[in-house]
Write a structure and sequence with these properties.
The complex is a heterotrimer of chains A (about 290), B (about 230) and C (about 260). Chain A has one domain. Chain A is built from nine helices and one strand; from the N terminus they run ααααβααααα. Chain C is mainly α and about 260 residues long. In chain C, about 75% of the residues lie in helices and about 0% in strands. Chain C is globular and about 70 Å long. The chains are: A mainly alpha (about 290), B mainly alpha (about 230), C mainly alpha (about 260). Chains in contact: A-B, A-C, B-C. At the A-B interface, helix 6, helix 7 and helix 9 of A face helix 2, helix 3, helix 4, strand 2 and helix 5 of B.
Chain lengths: ~290, ~230, ~260
C-alpha cells in the first residue's frame, strides 16, 4: 500500500514537473530572457528597431532560482504558522510572481533606455500587453515548483531530507538550466530568424538581423509564445518531467543498489536514441552546398 | 577529519575537471551558430550537480560510495536527457544536422563534420563524441559533488546529534557552494565555448584547469574542515 | 558605461563605516531593524557600482557568474566567522571576523584568476574584494533582520539550520547583478543604475520582512518601511528613465527615419 501511494505520488510529481517545464520555457519566451535575448538586444544596434519585450533580468537559472526560493521560503514560514496547505501554496506563488513582475518591468525599462543612442523608443503598450501574460506563465510555474517541493519534503515516504527553501532552490535552478538549454533553441534559432531560410544555423554575419514584422504590423513576443508552445515548450516540459520522474522512480522500484544499474541502462538508452536521430537527420537533410 | 579533508579535495577537483568535459556553446549555441549545450558552462554544471545532490540525498543512510555513485547516476541521467532533447529541438525544430567544425571526423560514428556545418557557423547541436564527453563530465561532476555531500553528511551525523533534515540541509549548502565557486573558476579557464575532450582547445586548457581547480579546492577544503571542526568542538 | 557621477571610493567609505555601525546597532529595540535595512541597501548599491567597473571587461563567461561566485565566497567566510566568534564566545567579533576572512579568501581567488588564468585586468583584485565585502554585508544584515540580533548562535539556529541562508544568498545575487544587467548599454547612467539597485534591495527586504514574521513582532513596521523605500526609489528610477529614453510611445510603430518624430 505504501509502495503504491509512493508510486502515485512520483507519477504526480512527474506530471507537475512537465507542467512547470512547459510554462517556464514559455515564460522565458514571452518575456525574452536568456540567451536568444542577446539578439533582441543587438537588433537596434544594426538598425532593426522592434516591439519585442526585451527583458534581461538575469540568466534564466538565477531568475527561476530566486523566485522559486522566495515562494518556497514563504511557504515554509506559513507552514510553520500552521496555515492550510492550498492557501499557503497559492499565497507563496502569488508573492513570488509579484517579485517577478516588478523585476520584469524595471528590466524592460532599463535595457530600452540604455539603447537611446539607436533611437529605440520605449513602448508603454508593450509593457502593458506583455506583463500580465508573463505573470500568468510565471504563476503557474511557481505554483507547480512549490507544490513539487512540498510533495518531496512533506508527503513522500521516505521524504527528501532537506528543508523546503533548499528543495525549492534546487528545483528552481535545475528547471531554469533545462529551460535555457532546450526550449530557447526553438525561440532563438527559428522564431527570431523566421525571415531566414529554414534548415540552417544563423551565420555570424546575420546576427541581430531578426524578424521585426508579422503579417499584420509589428511582431510582439506573444506571437513568439504561440509559435514556441507548439514544440519548444512541450519538449522542455517533457525533459524536466522525465528527469524528476526517473530520478525518483528508479530508486523506488529497484531499490538504491539496483537503481544504479537501472539508471546506467537509461543513460545508455538515450545515448543510442541520440545516435539514431543523428544518423537519420544526416540521411534526410544531406550536405550543405557552399 | 583527514578523511573529510581528502574527500573534499578529491571531490571539488573532480567537479573542476568535469566542467572541462561538458560541451558548452554559450549564447551562440541557442541560435545554432556554434555547437554545444546552449547555456553558460557554470549554469549547466550547477544544474547537473544539483540533480546529483538531490539523488545523493535520496540515498542517505547507505555507505558513502553508494551515495557518491547514486549522485553520479543522477547527474548522468540529467545530462543525457538534456543533451538528447536539445538535439531533438535542433533536428526537428530548427532543421539542422548535428555537426561541429572543431574536428574533422567523429571518431565514434565516423561521420564527416565539415560538409554538414551550415556556412558562416561553427556547428550546431551535440555530435556523438561531444555527447560522450558530456556524459564523462557529468560522471566526474556528479561523483565529485556527491562525494563532498556524503563526506560532510557522514561527519555531521557521526559527531552532532541534529535531525536528519538539518544535517542534510547543512551538507547541501556546503556542497552547493563548492559547485558555485569551482564551476565558475573552471569556466573562466575555458573562456567561452568548448566541444569536449576531442576538441583541440581541451588539450590546451586541461592542465592549467586541473592545477587551478586543485589549488582552489585545497583552500576551500581547508576552510571547510576548519568550519566543520568548529561546528563539532566549538 | 558612463562616467561616475559619484566616485566609487566615497560610496565604499560611506558603506563600510555606516553599515558596520548599523549592524552593531541591530540589537536595539525597534530601531535595530531599520538600521539593518539601511545597511543592506547601502551595501547593494556599493556592490552594483563596483560591478559596473569590472563588468565591462570580458572575463570569459557571463557577468552574473562573478556575483554568484563571490557571493559563495562571502557565504563561506560568513559561516566561518560565525564559528570563530562562537568558539571565542564573543559575538561582537562576528562581523569584523567575517570581513577579515572575506578579504583573505577573495584575494586568493583573484590571485588564481590573475596568475593561472592570465586574466589581465588591473582592477581585478580590488573589485573582487569590494564585491565580496559588500555581499558579506548584505548577507549579515539581511540575516540580522530575520534573527533580529547579530548574536551568532541565534543566527546559526534561525537562519542557517533552516536553509533560509540560501534564500538570502540568491536574493542578494539578484539584487546586486540585476541593475547592472538590465541597465547595460551605451546610454547607461550611474544614477539610474544605482536607483534601480536601491529599489531592488528594498524589494528583497520586503520579502525578508515577511520571512521575519517568525521572530519579530515588528515585521509589519519593517514591511511598511521597505515598501515606502521601494516606492521612493522606483519613482526615482521611472523619472530618470523618462528623462533619458529616446522617446516614449503609447502606441504605433518605431520611427522610420533617423530620429524625426
Amino acid at each position: 500500500m505504501d509502495m503504491l501511494f509512493n508510486l502515485v505520488l512520483v507519477a504526480l510529481m512527474g506530471l507537475i514537473a512537465i507542467i512547470a517545464g512547459i510554462f517556464e520555457d514559455l515564460e522565458s519566451d514571452v518575456a525574452s530572457t536568456s540567451n536568444p535575448n542577446s539578439q533582441v538586444q543587438l537588433a537596434p544596434q544594426v538598425g532593426n528597431l522592434h516591439k519585442l519585450f526585451n527583458r534581461a533580468v538575469s540568466g534564466e537559472p538565477v531568475l527561476m532560482g530566486t523566485t522559486a526560493t522566495i515562494a518556497g521560503s514563504i511557504a515554509y514560514v506559513l507552514f510553520t504558522l500552521n496555515y492550510p496547505v492550498v492557501l499557503v501554496l497559492l499565497i507563496s506563488a502569488l508573492i513570488a510572481t509579484l517579485v517577478q513582475v516588478i523585476l520584469s518591468i524595471t528590466s524592460y525599462m532599463g535595457r530600452i533606455t540604455s539603447q537611446a543612442l539607436y533611437n529605440q523608443p520605449l513602448f508603454l503598450d508593450v509593457l502593458i500587453k506583455h506583463i500580465p501574460i508573463s505573470a500568468a506563465h510565471a504563476f503557474i510555474t511557481l505554483f507547480s515548483i512549490t507544490t513539487l517541493s512540498y510533495i518531496m519534503v512533506y508527503l513522500l515516504d521516505p521524504a527528501v531530507p532537506l528543508s523546503l527553501p533548499v528543495t525549492a532552490l534546487l528545483m528552481g535552478i535545475s528547471l531554469g538550466t533545462i529551460g535555457s538549454a532546450i526550449g530557447d533553441i526553438h525561440y532563438g534559432a527559428e522564431k527570431l530568424y523566421q525571415n531566414h531560410e529554414f534548415g540552417s544555423g544563423i551565420a555570424v554575419s546575420n546576427n541581430g538581423n531578426i524578424a521585426t514584422k508579422s503579417p499584420l504590423g509589428s511582431r510582439n513576443s506573444i506571437d513568439v509564445v504561440r509559435f514556441c508552445s507548439k514544440f519548444g515548450g512541450p519538449i522542455s516540459g517533457l525533459c524536466f518531467g522525465l528527469i524528476i520522474f526517473l530520478t525518483f522512480w528508479i530508486n523506488l522500484v529497484f531499490g538504491i543498489n539496483y537503481g544504479l544499474i537501472a539508471g546506467l541502462i537509461i543513460v545508455l538508452l538515450f545515448f543510442i536514441l541520440n545516435i539514431i536521430i543523428e544518423k537519420n537527420a544526416r540521411i534526410n537533410f544531406g550536405k550543405y552546398e557552399k | 577529519m583527514w578523511e573529510l579533508l581528502i574527500s573534499l579535495i578529491i571531490g571539488s577537483t573532480l567537479i573542476g575537471i568535469g566542467v572541462h568535459f561538458i560541451p558548452v556553446g554559450g549564447a551562440p549555441a541557442a541560435l545554432s551558430t556554434s555547437a554545444g549545450v546552449p547555456t553558460g558552462a557554470p549554469m549547466i554544471t550547477i544544474g547537473m550537480g544539483i540533480t546529483g545532490i538531490l539523488s545523493a540525498a535520496l540515498a542517505i543512510g547507505q555507505p558513502n560510495y553508494i551515495i557518491a555513485l547514486s549522485g553520479a547516476v543522477g547527474s548522468m541521467i540529467m545530462m543525457s536527457i538534456t543533451m538528447f532533447f536539445s538535439n531533438v529541438i535542433h533536428i526537428y525544430g530548427v532543421g539542422v544536422p548535428l555537426a561541429s567544425s572543431n574536428f574533422e571526423k567523429d571518431p565514434l560514428t565516423g561521420f564527416e563534420q565539415d560538409a554538414f556545418v551550415s556556412p558562416g557557423t561553427t556547428g550546431h547541436g551535440i555530435p556523438t563524441i561531444s555527447y560522450v564527453s558530456g556524459l564523462i563530465g557529468s560522471l566526474l561532476g556528479g561523483v565529485g559533488g556527491s562525494l563532498a555531500f556524503a563526506s560532510i553528511y557522514s561527519t555531521f551525523s557521526t559527531y552532532l546529534n541534529y535531525s536528519t533534515v538539518i544535517n542534510g540541509t547543512l551538507a547541501t549548502i556546503f556542497s552547493l557552494m563548492l559547485f558555485f565557486i569551482v564551476a565558475v573558476m573552471a569556466s573562466y579557464n575555458i573562456g567561452g565555448t568548448i566541444q569536449g575532450f576531442y576538441d583541440e582547445k581541451f588539450k590546451q586548457k586541461i592542465i592549467s584547469g586541473t592545477i587551478s581547480c586543485f589549488i582552489i579546492s585545497v583552500v576551500l577544503s581547508l576552510v571547510y574542515v576548519f568550519i566543520i571542526w568548529g561546528l563539532i568542538y566549538g | 558605461m558612463a562616467e561616475d557621477l559619484i566616485p566609487n571610493q566615497i560610496i565604499m567609505l560611506v558603506t563600510l563605516i555606516i553599515s558596520i555601525l548599523c549592524i552593531y546597532g541591530s540589537q536595539i529595540y525597534l530601531v535595530g531593524g531599520i538600521l539593518v535595512i539601511i545597511a543592506s541597501v547601502l551595501a547593494t548599491a556599493y556592490a552594483t557600482n563596483t560591478l559596473r567597473h569590472i563588468g565591462k571587461y570580458s572575463l570569459g563567461t557571463g557577468v552574473p557568474s562573478i556575483i554568484y561566485m563571490l557571493m559563495a565566497v562571502a557565504l563561506v567566510s560568513y559561516v566561518s566567522a560565525i564559528l570563530i566568534s562562537s568558539y571565542l564566545k564573543l559575538s561582537i567579533a562576528f562581523p569584523i571576523m567575517g570581513i577579515l576572512i572575506a578579504i583573505i579568501l577573495s584575494y586568493i581567488v583573484s590571485m588564481i584568476c590573475k596568475h593561472i588564468f592570465k586574466i589581465q585586468v588591473e582592477i581585478l583584485s580590488k573589485a573582487f574584494i569590494s564585491i565580496t565585502l559588500a555581499s558579506l554585508i548584505v548577507l549579515i544584515s539581511m540575516s540580522c533582520l530575520i534573527a533580529h540580533t547579530y548574536n551568532q548562535s541565534v543566527i546559526y539556529e534561525e537562519v542557517i539550520q533552516t536553509g533560509l541562508i540560501l534564500l538570502i544568498m540568491i536574493m542578494a545575487v539578484m539584487a546586486i547583478q540585476n541593475p547592472y544587467n538590465s541597465c547595460m548599454g551605451p546610454n547607461e547612467d550611474q544614477y539610474r543604475t544605482l536607483s534601480l539597485a536601491c529599489s531592488n534591495a528594498f524589494l528583497m527586504l520586503m520579502v525578508i520582512s515577511i520571512i521575519s514574521i517568525l521572530n519579530s513582532q515588528f515585521w509589519m513596521l519593517y514591511l511598511l518601511i521597505s515598501l515606502i523605500g521601494w516606492i521612493v526609489f522606483f519613482r526615482k528610477y521611472v523619472i530618470y528613465t523618462k528623462q533619458q529614453a529616446a522617446s516614449i510611445r503609447r502606441f504605433g510603430l518605431w520611427p522610420i527615419d533617423d530620429g524625426d518624430d
